[in-house]
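S1.2 Input.
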Amino acid sequence: MMALDFARGLRRLATASLLLVLANAVPLSAARANEAAPVDLDTKGKVAGPDRSAEVGARPAETAGPVQSPLAPYLAVRLLQQLQDQIAHGSTAAQAAEPRQLVRIGEVFAAADPAAWTNPRNAGAAVLYLFSAGKPAVVRAAMQRATLSPDNDRLIKGALAYAEGQDGAARALLGTFDPRALPAVLGGHLALVLATLYADTDPQKAGQMLDSARLLVPGTLVEEAALRRQIFLSAHPAMLDKFSALSRQYIRRFRGSVFVNNFKGRLVSFAERIALSGEVAQMAKLDAVMAELPGAEARGIYLAMARDALVGGRSEGARYAAARATALSSDATADAARAKLYAAAAIVSSDDVAAGRAALQSIDAGRLSVRDADLRDAALTIAASVDADLVDRDQGAVVPDGAASVLVERAEAALSAGDKLLGRTP
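S1.3 Output.
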């Protein structure tokens, strides 16, 4: 009898220890302990693979050991949520652990008693699992003998439709729920999914869903993904103020995210679009965003803007961006030489050709890339051509056919150098 009591005590202790590990394996996020992993919404209707180029961040939670029954499904999903929190703040180790935990959740779901799904927390866990790139077959198998409330049945069916790419069915089923009326974690994930489902049919509602997602679960990967999505949607000249405000917020809150390079790629692309417009007032609105970045990154973006504005024939924009890059460059560096080159080449296209030529001649060509050296030569050729043409006109001379051909050749060479720049550089 004593041996039996001792064995029962050991089993209770083992179960309690497992639950303690699950509850404390990873520090909880600043917002909530039980938020779940969102689907990356960059690819509509599909789970996008994460950007794996970030630095290794915080150490992730250890995944649970061999499945032991009874382990509630919601506890297994909670650990996945904690891993996702660490991913939002830069842990590539947590990112690597995520697929293993998804497999483990499948095992827990398969071992769960059918009666477990009457618990709303477990039903919600099934939905969160599907929103987190979980396998629909796992949930379908688990639900075969489950008895669900009408709302949970509709919610799980909607999540299954979403996971299987059936956007119309998912929108019809999930759209009947108000994310703000659900538990915060579930509501935040649902809002993020609905933003994707409404992106094409109702952009305004999609924007409202993204706002709700950020407010319901601040500090989580849901907020991070919603913020990146809003930045993408506001990348338009007419929405530049909003783009700038959201970008500053993203950098301040999620500069260490595993997905930060996705954001930076969008920032560079949009900055180059603004540069091609040549509107200095528009370009200046990005200064506040650049101020949040490390100096080297901001300098690189300004140089790209200056180059694109120059190739697009926007001399004022080129000079503005080059001046900003110069302010962030040390003297006698390659970046300083590039900034000076772009500014000088822009001056050549203005009335002060002599000043532009002098600036170009003062640049150490050895500090330039091959493409930038070609640009310098092309700009000097243009300056010489302009000077020659002005002299001939002042003297009332008629430019002979041969000389005209030389000017054409020079112009073609300059255009060729500009075309090379369009291939992107240094």
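S1.4 Remarks. The mean pLDDT is 80.
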